[in-house]
Design a protein that fits this description.
Shape: elongated
Number of helices: 30
Number of strands: 22
Strand content: 5-15%
Helix content: 40-55%
Structural class: alpha/beta
Strand order of the largest sheet: 3-2-1-4-5-7-6-8
C-alpha cells in the first residue's frame, strides 16, 4: 500500500479519474494561498525585484502554481511533477505557465535544473522518510526552500505517513540552509476552509544570501503556535467572564437599590407608628384624667344623696316641729345641688374639648400626609422638567446641525451667485474697489483667481513662481495707515472645531492688547505648568483641523499656557491676543519674541521659519523641532520651499533644536541617527475621541445627495482628508470600475487639482470640504474607511491623523501596504495592488459588525488620543 500510494501509476490514476471530484484543484489553490499570505513581504519583494526563479515541486494540475503567478511574474515560475497525466492537464489548463514532467527523486540535479526558490505544498507528509526527500529538494535550490505542511496532525489522513511536530522539525538542513521563518495558521478559523487543522509555513535559506540581504530580527518570524487563534479564544473567554461579572454587578446593584428602598419604607413606617403611639398615649392620659374626674363627681353625688336622705329623715321626724327650719334648709340644699350640677356640666364640657383636640390631631396628621404627597408630586414634576430640558438640548443640537446645513446651502447659493452673469459683469468694479482699499490683497486674489483657472499641467509648471509670490505677499510689511484687518476681509468665517471648551468666537470676542495680556494672563504664569509657544505654521481657523491645533489644545487641557502664533493669513483675524480654547491664546504680536524660559515648537513643514529668525533674540528656552513629514516636492511645494525646509532640518539635526519630535517610526529612526535617542520623542498623530463619539452626530441632518447615495449602495467605502498628489488615483479608478457593487465617498479639500483625478462614475461621490464640526456625522455613513496613499516614501513615512479618527468611529480601515505606520496595527487591512485592495475591502466588510473587533478599534482610539501625545512631549519641559 505504501509503494502504491507514492507510485507514478497511483497518482496518474488519481489525476485522470477523481482529482477534481475530490476537490484536489481547490485544495491546491487554498494551500498555496495560505502559504503565500504567511510568507515575509521581503521575500516576495526580492522575488519580483531580482527576478528569482521558483519551482513548485509536486504542482499536480498546476492550480497552486497559478496562485503564485498572481504574486510573481509567470516567466519566473516552473511547475514540476513526476506524473505525466498531471503535467499534461496543467499545461492545458494554464498555457501561460511553464510545467515540467520530472522525477527529482530519481535524477540528480544539474546546473540547468537548479532554481533560486523551491516551493513544496503538502507533499512531504506522503513519505515515510520526508527529510530524506527534503534533502533531495534542497539540492535543487540556490537560495531558499519553502514548505507548507500539515502541522500537529495526530489523526492522519489515509494517504499521510508522517506527522510534523515541534519536536521533529529541524532548524538546519543538511546542505547548510537555516530556518528563518516559521508561521502557524489555524485553518479552522478561515472562511470556506478546506483544511480542518493547522498548517505550518517554513522557509530554509542560504546563510550567505541572508547576510547579503541584511535582514533584521523584525523581518524573521519563528512560532510554534497560532498566537492569533489562541488570543481570540482567550479574548472570547475574557469577554464571557466580563459579561458574567457585569450581570452579577448589575444584580447586586439592583438588590442594593431594593434593600435601600425597603429600608427607607421601614424607617418611614416606624416614624409614623411612633407618632401614632405618642398621640394614643396622650389620648389615654387625657381619658384617664377624665375618668378620674367622673369618678370623683360620682362619689360626691353618692355623698350628697346620703346626706339628703339623712336630712329627709330628720325632717320627717321633726316635720311638725321644724317646718319653717326645714324649708330654709331645703332651700339651702337646693342651692348646693345646683352648684354640684353646674360642676358636672363643666366637666362634660372639658371632656368634649378633649375629644375635639383628638380629632384636630387626626386632621393634622392627614394634612402632613397630604403635604408629603405634594412634595412627592413636586419632585416627580421636577424630574419631568429635567427630562424636558434634556430633550430641548437635543432639539437645540439638531437645530445647530440644521443651521450648519443652512450655512452650507447659503455657501452653495453664494457660489451659484458668483457664477452668475451679473456677478461676472460687476467683477471689475469690485476688484477696483478692493485694489483701492488693499492693493496687496487685491493683487493676491487676482493672481489666485487666474492661477486656479489654468490647465493642470500649466499650474504645475508655475508652482515655483506661485510660491515665490505667496512668500512675498506673506512677508510684505503692512503700510502705514492701512488697517491690518482689511488684508483678510474676504477670509471665510470658520466654526471653531471642538478640540476643547471653546472660549469665544471671532465675531463676539474683544482681543486683548499685549499689556492687557501681560496683566491678565502672564502675571499668573506660576499657575501654569509651563509655557508652550507654537511658532508660525498654520492659522488656527482653517477648515481642515490639523496636528498643530490638536497638540496646542491638548497642552491647554494638561494645564500649560499655550501661545499659538498666527500671521492672520487664512481666517484668524486677531489683533492682539485671543483665547480660542481653554488656556490656548492665538496672537499676532511680535512681543512673544521677548518671552524667556519657554518651550518653542517649529514644524518641519513651516517654510516661513528660518534659523536666523528663530535665533534673532536667542533661544530663550527649549527649542523643539516637529519632524512630521518626509520633505518631498509633493508635500513641500517648489524648489525654494524644499531648500528652506531642508535648511531648517539641517539646523535642527545639527544641534539647533533641543528635541526632535517624530510623528512616524521611520522619521524617528532618521532623527535618532542624527541626534541620538535621548533627544528624540516619538509622538505620532492622534484623535479627539470625545468629538468623534459625541451623540449630537446621531441627529445631524445630512445633505440629500449623501442620503440618496447611502440608500443606493448597501456597502460604502469612505475617505476624508486632502485630495493631494500623494493619493493613488490610478488604483482608486481601477477599484471603482472593478467593484460596481461598492459605493465610494471622498470628502476633503482639493490640493493641486486632486478632485479632477477622481474617476467620474455613478458609484463615486465627491462632496468637497465638510466642516470639522459635523464631519463625524458624515463619516458615520461609511461602512469601511480608506487611506489610498500611492506606494513610495511619503506612504512609508506618514502617520495619518485620519487613521485614529477612523478607529474612534469604530470603522474597519483599508490602506496601501507601504503605509508602515498603519499596517503596524494588525487590525488594519492592506493591499499592494488593485486585486489585493479589493480582497482587503471584502475582509473589512466581513468584520464591520463584529462587536469584539469594533471594541478593539475603540480601545486603539483611546490609547492614541491627543492627550497621550502631549504627555509624551512633556519631556521637552523637564529641567536639565
Amino acid at each position: 500500500m505504501q509503494t502504491e500510494i507514492n507510485s507514478r501509476a497511483y497518482w496518474d490514476t488519481r489525476f485522470e479519474n477523481d482529482w477534481l471530484a475530490c476537490r484536489g484543484d481547490k485544495q491546491s489553490r487554498f494551500f498555496a494561498k495560505v502559504a503565500i499570505q504567511h510568507l515575509p513581504h521581503w521575500l516576495l519583494d526580492q522575488a519580483r525585484q531580482q527576478a528569482l526563479s521558483l519551482a513548485d515541486w509536486g504542482c499536480a494540475q498546476g492550480d497552486g502554481t497559478d496562485v503564485w503567478a498572481s504574486y510573481v511574474p509567470a516567466e519566473q515560475i516552473t511547475g514540476v511533477d513526476f506524473s505525466a497525466a498531471a503535467i499534461q492537464q496543467a499545461s492545458a489548463r494554464y498555457p501561460a505557465l511553464r510545467f515540467e514532467n520530472s522525477n527529482w527523486l530519481e535524477s540528480s540535479a544539474g546546473e540547468q535544473n537548479l532554481f533560486d526558490l523551491v516551493f513544496s505544498s503538502n507533499t512531504l507528509e506522503h513519505f515515510h522518510q520526508p527529510y530524506q526527500v527534503l534533502h533531495t529538494l534542497s539540492q535543487r535550490a540556490r537560495k531558499a526552500v519553502i514548505l507548507a505542511l500539515p502541522y500537529r496532525e495526530m489523526e492522519r489522513e489515509s494517504e499521510h505517513f508522517y506527522s510534523f511536530l515541534p519536536e521533529n522539525i529541524p532548524l538546519q538542513l543538511e546542505n547548510g540552509f537555516n530556518l528563518v521563518w516559521a508561521k502557524v495558521q489555524d485553518c479552522r478559523l478561515l472562511e470556506n476552509s478546506l483544511w480542518q487543522g493547522d498548517q505550518i509555513i517554513l522557509m530554509y535559506a542560504d546563510t550567505a544570501w541572508l547576510k547579503k540581504l541584511g535582514l533584521r530580527l523584525s523581518q524573521t518570524h519563528i512560532l510554534q503556535i497560532d498566537t492569533h487563534s489562541e488570543l481570540n479564544q482567550l479574548q472570547g473567554q475574557l469577554g464571557e467572564n466580563q459579561l458574567l461579572l457585569q450581570q452579577a454587578q448589575q444584580a447586586q446593584e439592583e438588590q442594593l437599590l431594593v434593600n435601600t428602598h425597603q429600608q427607607q419604607m421601614l424607617t418611614q413606617h416606624e416614624q409614623f407608628r411612633q407618632q401614632q403611639q405618642q398621640e394614643i398615649a396622650s389620648l389615654m392620659l387625657a381619658s384617664e384624667k377624665l375618668q378620674q374626674d367622673v369618678d370623683a363627681r360620682d362619689k360626691k353625688i353618692v355623698i350628697l344623696n346620703e346626706g339628703l336622705q339623712d336630712y329627709e329623715h330628720k325632717l320627717q321626724e321633726q316635720r311638725d316641729e321644724f317646718q319653717i327650719q326645714i324649708a330654709k334648709e331645703s332651700a339651702s340644699h337646693a342651692v348646693a345641688l345646683q352648684a354640684v350640677q353646674a360642676e358636672i356640666v363643666a366637666k362634660d364640657v372639658s371632656f368634649e374639648q378633649l375629644t375635639k383636640n383628638s380629632q384636630q390631631l387626626t386632621l393634622n396628621l392627614q394634612q402632613l400626609k397630604q403635604e408629603h404627597q405634594q412634595l412627592s408630586d413636586s419632585l416627580q414634576q421636577k424630574e419631568q422638567d429635567y427630562a424636558k430640558l434634556l430633550q430641548q438640548l437635543d432639539v437645540r443640537d439638531a437645530q445647530m446641525a440644521r443651521l450648519n446645513l443652512d450655512v452650507h446651502g447659503k455657501e452653495e447659493a453664494i457660489k451659484s451667485l458668483k457664477q452668475s452673469y451679473s456677478w461676472i459683469l460687476t467683477r471689475p468694479l469690485r476688484f477696483t474697489k478692493q485694489f483701492v482699499q488693499s492693493p496687496g490683497r487685491a493683487s493676491y486674489d487676482m493672481a489666485k483667481f487666474v492661477f486656479w483657472r489654468l490647465p493642470a499641467k500649466m499650474r504645475w509648471a508655475l508652482h515655483g513662481p506661485r510660491h515665490d509670490f505667496v512668500r512675498w505677499v506673506r512677508t510684505a510689511p503692512v503700510t502705514a495707515g492701512t488697517n491690518p484687518q482689511t488684508i483678510n476681509a474676504s477670509a471665510p468665517t470658520v466654526i471653531l472645531p471642538a478640540a476643547g471648551n471653546t472660549v469665544a468666537s471671532r465675531s463676539t470676542n474683544k482681543d486683548l492688547s499685549w499689556p492687557e495680556f501681560q496683566q491678565q494672563v502672564l502675571s499668573r504664569r506660576a499657575d501654569y505648568k509651563g509655557i508652550f509657544v507654537q511658532e508660525l505654521v498654520i492659522d488656527w481657523n482653517v477648515p481642515l483641523y490639523q496636528r498643530p491645533q490638536h497638540i496646542a489644545a491638548a497642552f491647554g487641557r494638561l494645564g500649560y499656557l499655550v501661545i499659538y502664533r498666527t500671521d492672520n493669513w487664512a481666517g484668524d483675524d486677531v489683533q492682539g491676543c485671543r483665547e480660542v480654547v481653554k488656556n490656548v491664546w492665538i496672537t499676532n504680536r511680535h512681543e512673544v519674541n521677548q518671552l524667556q524660559d519657554v518651550t518653542r515648537s517649529l514644524y518641519s513643514t513651516a517654510y516661513a521659519n528660518t534659523p536666523e529668525l528663530l535665533l534673532e533674540n536667542g533661544k530663550r528656552g527649549t527649542l523643539v523641532y516637529e519632524y512630521i513629514d518626509h520633505i518631498d516636492p509633493q508635500i513641500s511645494g517648489d524648489e525654494e520651499n524644499v531648500r528652506r525646509l531642508l535648511a531648517l532640518k539641517d539646523f535642527a539635526f545639527n544641534g539647533g533644536a533641543d528635541y526632535v519630535v517624530a510623528s512616524a517610526k521611520k522619521l524617528e529612526a532618521e532623527a535618532i541617527a542624527a541626534v541620538g535617542a535621548d533627544k528624540v520623542i516619538l509622538a505620532q498623530n492622534g484623535v479627539d475621541t470625545m468629538h468623534y463619539r459625541h451623540p449630537k452626530h446621531l441627529s445631524t441632518p445630512l445633505p440629500q445627495n449623501l442620503q440618496n447615495f447611502r440608500s443606493k449602495y448597501s456597502k460604502v467605502v469612505g475617505y476624508f482628508g486632502a485630495l493631494a498628489p500623494w493619493l493613488w488615483y490610478e488604483a482608486v479608478a481601477d477599484l471603482v470600475t472593478s467593484r460596481p457593487d461598492l459605493g465610494f465617498v471622498f470628502i476633503g479639500p482639493d490640493y493641486y487639482g486632486g478632485s479632477e483625478k477622481l474617476l467620474k462614475a455613478d458609484n463615486l461621490l465627491y462632496m468637497g470640504t465638510v466642516d470639522y464640526q459635523i464631519l463625524p456625522a458624515y463619516a458615520r455613513q461609511f461602512d469601511v474607511c480608506f487611506i489610498p496613499f500611492a506606494p513610495g516614501e511619503i506612504a512609508r513615512t506618514t502617520s495619518p491623523l485620519k487613521l485614529f479618527e477612523y478607529f474612534a468611529l469604530e470603522k474597519p480601515v483599508v490602506v496601501t501596504r507601504d503605509m508602515e505606520e498603519c499596517v503596524a496595527f494588525e487590525e488594519v487591512f492592506s493591499g499592494n495592488s488593485v486585486e489585493a485592495l479589493s480582497e482587503a475591502l471584502d475582509a473589512a466588510f466581513a468584520v464591520k459588525d463584529d462587536p469584539a473587533f469594533t471594541q478593539r478599534l475603540a480601545q486603539l482610539a483611546d490609547a492614541n488620543d491627543w492627550d497621550c501625545r502631549a504627555r509624551a512631549m512633556e519631556k521637552a519641559f523637564a529641567k536639565p
